[in-house]
Structure formats: C-alpha cells, structure tokens
Design goal:
Elements (H helix, E strand, L loop, with lengths): L3 E4 L9 H11 L3 E6 L11 H8 L6 E6 L7 H5 L4 E7 L7 H10 L3 E6 L17 E5 L14 H15 L4 E5 L7 H7 L3 E4 L1 H4 L4 H9 L1
Parallel strand pairs: 1-8, 2-3, 3-4, 4-5, 5-6, 6-7, 7-8
Helix pairs in contact: 1-8
Length: about 220
Amino acid sequence: MTPLISPSMLAADFLHLEKDVRMVNEHADLFHLDVMDGRFVPNISYGFPVIEAMAKIAEKPLDIHLMIQHPQVYLERFCKIPHAGLVSFHLDATRDDPESVLGIISNNGVKAGLAINPNIPVEKLYPYLDVCDFVVIMSVFAGFGGQSFIEDTYERVATIRQEIDRRGLDTMIEVDGGVSPKNSAKLVECGADILVAGSAVFKSENPAATVAAMRG
C-alpha cells in the first residue's frame, strides 16, 4: 500500500514558511505539527498563532501531535483550527482516562490518536485500539527533531499491526522520528500507514522528490 506522507513543519524554513506550506499542499498528504510545552518534553515549539497562520493557506489536513501535559485543556481549540484532521496526544501525558480524552477529539469531528515513546511497550495501546482512529509509534524520543531512527521500531510497528489486523480494526499506524527514504519502504512493509518526516524532507535538496521517494 502507498503510505500517507506527513512532513513535520518543525523542520521547515520559518523565514520562508509559506514556501514550505505550499510544497506540502502540492506534494504531500498531511501537515505534521509538533506542539511542545517545555514540560512534557524538554523543548518548546510553536502554538496557536503559528498553526493558525499555516492553516490559512493549508489545503491538506493538519496532523496535530500534542507533546504537552494535560492536553484535554486545549483540545477543543486545536480541533476547531481550520483543516484540523488528526489530533494525537501521548498516553502518559494525562491523568484522565485516555478514552475520555480521545472522545473529546472524536466528538469534534477530528480523527483521534494516541502516541507513545520508544520506551513504552506497544501493548499499552491495546486497550484503546478500538477507540483510536490512529496510533503514533515514536521512532525517536519526543522533544527534538533530527534524532536518529531507533531500529527496533520495525518490530514495534509489526507487533501492533498484527494486533490491529487480528481484531479487524481500521486503526492506522503513524511512525514519527528519523523517517527517510532509507527506511520508509521497510516501515510500510511492517504495517505503517502514515510516515512523518522532518529533516529528511525539508533539509533535502529537493523536498518534493524526497516525498515521492518515501511513497515508493
């Protein structure tokens, strides 16, 4: 199958952001937006003003990845941003029942996702697979771009794909971190549906060609 490519805008050229937004419009499938609060992860990225500015010219759905504590506080506003298509939060970022937090997203007409870092067993996602539209398997630790891909991600993706298929679910698998044309085909073979790539796309000489190469 052909994966959806979700370029991570954290790696875009913020002095020429409109150019990179239009590249995604023309060549990719989703806009991946990493929202960091400096508390859940040791880094701070962008918030509503930057995302809402991108949304004004975005033509593809926004794939909003919340790396923040207490995500439920902000979910309504994120879901109401124009073109918001997918919103995910980390399983260990909320003290509330994850199913209820997923429900907030779904009730706003947006696809709801759960994310986990590489040190969390994929089995922790199993209780929520039937209420998730997608899961995010981090192939680096959340918080910083440009990290190296963690090799046991392949096995983790294959494991959760097997469980999704065993139950006959439509839950999609997104892989985020260190993804590039070098590993994209193997990730799809293992069961990935959505590939997030930042540096591999925006730091390449030809971002459009890189996106095409990752599609296979």
